[in-house]
Amino acid sequence: MARIITLAHQKGGVGKSTLALNLALCFKDQLRVALIDSDLQGSIYHLKEDFPKLDILAPEKISEIPKLNYDLIIVDTPPYLSNRLNELFGYSDYVLVPTKAGFFDVMAIKSTLALIKFSQAQNQRLKAGIVLNMIKPRSGITAEVVELLNTLGTPLLNTRVFDRVSLARSSMTSGILKSTDQKAIEEVTFLAEESLT
Length: 197
Known about the structure:
Layout: E1 3-7, H1 16-27, E2 33-37, E3 55-57, E4 72-76, H2 85-91, E5 94-99, H3 103-122, E6 127-135, H4 141-149, E7 156-162, H5 165-168, H6 182-196
Parallel strand pairs: 1-4, 1-5, 2-3, 2-4, 5-6, 6-7
Helix pairs in contact: 1-6, 2-3
């Protein structure tokens, strides 16, 4: 049975789709990987032809997750709390919650974390972690946000992903692993490793 990692945060613009795509690309050479775009906008699904060696599946595949023949399935979710999240969290082994280092982002994360905790009561294997994403260099707010996130009861991952042009453009440039930005490659690779532990 596949290991399932779902990326979720009710707020848009926190980098879920970019991370989902690049995480899938990190694993595709070692594992049979599928990336499911559960957002009806289909941002990732529309990239299907640009990544022919990666199985990018449409939202309707969500119901088939338990039957899909992959080693790893990564699910990108829409930027709102949909009624499908309970179903997705029920299938998932891990929920990765990307957030920016801003107070409004942290306030918005609470509803997502509450939904995860509700699902954990029914799905004993479900684990979750928060990753600080799109961090502005030399931002003084990050330490305050870290302190606040540490009070929410969901582990804050060690990996930090900084706001880099190479990462923002990675969906148009065959993914971050094909870039020359070594720091961005390291951050995404560390996040991939930490998401599987």
